[in-house]
Amino acid sequence: MSGLSHLARASRAILWRELMRFLLQRERFLAALVRPLVWLFVFASGFRAALGLSIIPPYQTYISYETYILPGLCGMILLFSGMQSSLSLVHERENGAMRLMLTAPLPRWFLLMAKLAASALVGILQVFVFLAIAYTYGIKLKISGYALALPALILAALMLGALGLFLSASVRRLENFAGVMNFVIFPMFFCSSALYPIWKMQESSPLLAQICRLNPFTHAVELVRFALYGQSSLPALLWCLGSFGVFFALAIRGYEPAQTRVPAKG
Amino acid sequence: MGRSRAPDALIPAMTEALCVKNLSHSWGAKRALDEVTFTLPRGSFCALLGQNGAGKSTLISVLTGLIRPPRGAVHVAGHDMARAPTAALGKIGVVFQQPTLDLDLSVQANLRYFAALHGIPRRIADDRIVEALGRLGMAERGHERLRSLNGGHRRRMEIARALLHRPDLLILDEPTVGLDAGTRAAITEHVHALTKTGLSVLWATHLSDEIRPDDAVILLDKGRIRADGEARTLSGLEDIPVWFKRVTGGSLCPA
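^ Those are the sequences you sent over. The predicted structure of the assembly is below.
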């Protein structure tokens, strides 16, 4: 049997397993959808009066606050989804399912990449369900925008998933991971352009604005924002590619056999 | 009995399913494996005996490529785990101590997932799955969710799964933990019978009734091999738990 068909078979199986596990956990699917919808329907309604938005690229006209935070909420879904996949990885490390995968006769980087692609697929699926609901609510974009957003969403999902994978390699126990969620998800989300433009942040705190500019999540959100309007943002693209490379390299290093700490019992 | 400490100039021969040489590994300051050397010929059943903390799980993690030891070499069916890990892993079937099944997926889906990880084409995989389930008397249960199976069936299924890619070596880490006496005996019997097909088995345990007089035994104690030979030769006239206590100072569960 050829090596390539083995790789194809294995990655298909890993993608399929992740998808089935997600679809079978209805609560997870529901929670993943309710979170951004609450932000969109409740938070945005209350917040739009407080925030005056000027016309900034890629927008060419005044936009509603709901329209502004749409890409940020897509990013939020991917961020949560990426972290949730890592959470399940930490769980799988403990219950042994991860060992089963890592003892397959395939290069480790490939297995991790397949796992990453699988979690990205699950995240992107959630994003499109969310966008469809937002569409029926009245936040409509050009159909081509949705199509062009796909590659941006893939890159953003891979980058955030790689961050989660790296964290799961570094965090040894499940309890510690809850802390990481608090220390990673919330700072990343709030110190970004997801909920407010960086120039707004600049007015109140130049330091925070600078942190926002350095936050890879900001660039993931901007990449999606520009793509939804059929434009590309080169800095965002480079930031996302670079961050993905760094996070994935760190994740591979974390999962290298020499580095892996399997709890020794006997 | 054909299995002995490897000589210094050992070249892993194709007749050996497993060849371990000078393996050492530490967890921080704790020496988990200390110059572990042994070989396992094809078709042999070898019990890896040791108390909790003796280094069994560390050894299994090294043998399955999950950790790479700073010293020593592992060859599986002639393939070097360090230089050709994928070739070596392709020759190993593993049953971990903790179940590694997706309880919400069907029996068949679990087996197909594993087969795909090992690159077995779908048609061949399905044939082997039907055959494996038939052998376990579970032919009609392929579409059931794993959750509906009892502990014994789940374990048997994990063993069948570990054999789907026709490995040369089957490694089991305390596979009967948590099972009732009857199921334990049946699974022990089943795996002993598998060696007749030429499969080599490394069976980690701390239960003496799982060992037969003509089984090979490797006794691991504080990371070192304390004894290596045929069970009846090692224990002589003593029962295995008595012998174990005398050699290691610790106790072994008789059942």
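The two ends of chain A are 37 Å apart (CA to CA). The CA atoms of residues 163 and 247 of chain A lie 5 Å apart.

Shout if you want it in another format.
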